[in-house]
Amino acid sequence: MAMSADAQKTFYLEVFGCQMNVHDSEKVIGTLLAQGYRQVSTVEEAGLILYNTCSIRDKAEQKVFHRLADYKKLQAQGKRFGVLGCVAQQEGEKIFERAPHVSLVCGSASYRNLPQMLIQIEAGKQRVTGLDDRETDECFETEFTARTNPHRGYITIIEGCDKFCAYCVVPYTRGKERSRTSESVLAEARQMTDLGYTEIQLLGQNVNSYKDPEGNPGSSKSSKKTFAELLAAVGEVPGIRRVRFTTSHPRDFGRDIVDAIDAVPTLCDHVHLPVQTGSTRVLDAMQRLYTRDQYLERIAWMKAAKREISITTDVIVGFPGETEADFAETLGLLEEVGYDAVFAFKYSPRPNTPSLSMEDAIPDEEKARRLEVLMAKQREIQSASYKRYIGTHCEVMVEGRNEARAQWIGRTTHNKTLNFTVPEGANPKAGSYVPVIVTGSFPNSLLGELVV
Ligand code: SAM
Ligand code: SF4
Fold first, then answer.
1. Measured from the CB, is residue 54 less than 6 Å from ligand 2?
2. Res. 85: pLDDT tops 80
3. Contact 420, 410 (CB under 8 A)
């Protein structure tokens, strides 16, 4: 059965992976809406089905191929399929062979060209690609961002990555590092506050490798900003209550970032600083560009800050050649730093990356064991350390209500979830900021009562 032209101008988009993908999707959705498409919430209603994919680990990558297999039969109804993001860039035209019902394959560096690609799809072209822009100096800037959260908004300040860690696909899938001008970032921040946003999160694979470009329209030498200066300037935009940034790379993490947090109260007291391993030997094999001691020096700067900065990290266990002694160094580092959260992953060998051909692979059961040990240790650390908040007052941004538990859900400036009760009759609004006293703690969240 052929679909009507109108129904074909509907799309369904599912996103996998990191915050960058979520925000890229907001921009892709905005672009489609501006092209006259309507977003629908099921595959069945859609003329165009898009997957914004992640290939950071093998499991993430497999998800999209499962989805494509599940819905292949819908092609007979005239529906078109598109694969966007990291798997699209990594696999390129091979996707057409593996899933012949796909007609669009487009990496994130090519999203700027989506309007032209959509026109080709609408004209009935069977295979449309956007794969040749990884060397571009341009960012995907658009006035059409379909933001999904009315209070917290994301701004990408830097795209791509030039670091080439031995295990990571990002430099191959997202292309070379390129920053937006600080003028453009600040203009977007001001537009957002005009629309009522009070929290802004600056995004980039390595947000603190930010380099304000010269010579772009609207940029002058005198107004060029470092990352810390940009952070402070966003924090000073009238109407802003909270500024977050993720992810920071330890090599480019300067003391000026801590100074900015000290000086500008709207900058949240939370830093996500992925360490990956506590062993300098493994850091070297991973090509991370810092030693354990240099990483700990940055932690010391944060610990000396005027406000207590909550520190979180990412860890990879079972990198090729990781010995028991290396792993013990990672466990020791968790103790020493006292992270408020650790995102830990089993090493996953990825296409094109140097570590794919490294010797001494760690068997999967051993990786699973190390992951289990590491997470148990971190649970212990958090169970003990979250108690430090009991009895303190925190300001939270209200995110919603958990009806089943008769609790409100809030988020602290440290980026912790704080579930709280309110006196009868009180009804805090989503997006408002309210004071809460902490009365209890769990390994991953806090409990409290609204202060009236
Ligand atoms: N740019 C950030 C940095 O340098 O820390 C991280 C970006 S990456 C999207 C997020 C996390 O995924 C990394 O910090 C790392 O812990 C994890 N990761 C990346 N490649 C991986 C791989 N091949 N296997 C397992 N985990 C991986
Ligand atoms: Fe991947 Fe390393 Fe770049 Fe982070 S810094 S995105 S881990 S290559």
1. no
2. yes
3. yes
340: closest CA among 295, 389, 399?
389
Outline where DSSP puts E strands in 35-189.
Answer: 38-39, 48-53, 80-85, 102-106, 128-130, 152-156, 158-159, 178-179
State the DSSP string of 81-124: EEEEEHHHHHHTTHHHHH-TTEEEEE-GGGGGGHHHHHHHHHTT
The CA distance from 390 to 368, in Å, is 34
- Non-local (6+) Cβ contacts of 265 within 8 A are 235
**pTM value > 0.85:** yes
Minimum-distance ligand to the CA of 343?
1
CA 166 to chain centroid, in Å, comes to: 20
Look at phi and psi of residue 374 and say left if phi exceeds 0, alpha if psi is from -120 to 50, else beta: alpha
Q: In the structure encoding, which two tokens stand for residue 261, read together? A: 């947090």
The ligand 1 atom nearest the CA atom of 315: 16
Cβ neighbors of 38 (< 8 A, separation 6 or more) are: 9, 10, 11
Q: Which amino acid residue places its CA nearest to atom 22 of ligand 1? A: 348
CA of 251 to the centre of ligand 2 (A): 11
The full length of the chain comes to: 452
Non-local CB neighbours of 195 within 8 Å, separated by 6+ positions: none
Q: For residue 236, what is the DSSP state?
A: T
- Enter the DSSP assignment of 403: T
Nearest alpha carbon, ligand 2 atom 5: 163
Helical (H) or strand (E) element with 280: helix 280-285
Do the Cβ atoms of 47 and 80 come closer than 8 Å?
Answer: yes
C-alpha Rg value of the chain to the nearest Å: 23
**In whole angstroms, what is the distance from residue 115 CA to residue 141 CA?**
13
- The predicted structure's pLDDT at residue 271: 98
- Work out which ligand 2 atom sits closest to the CA atom of 276: 7
- Residue-wise pLDDT for 140-187, tens only, equals 988 889 998 889 999 999 999 999 999 999 999 999 999 999 999 999
| Closest atom, ligand 1, to C-alpha of 163 | 4
103, amino acid identity: S
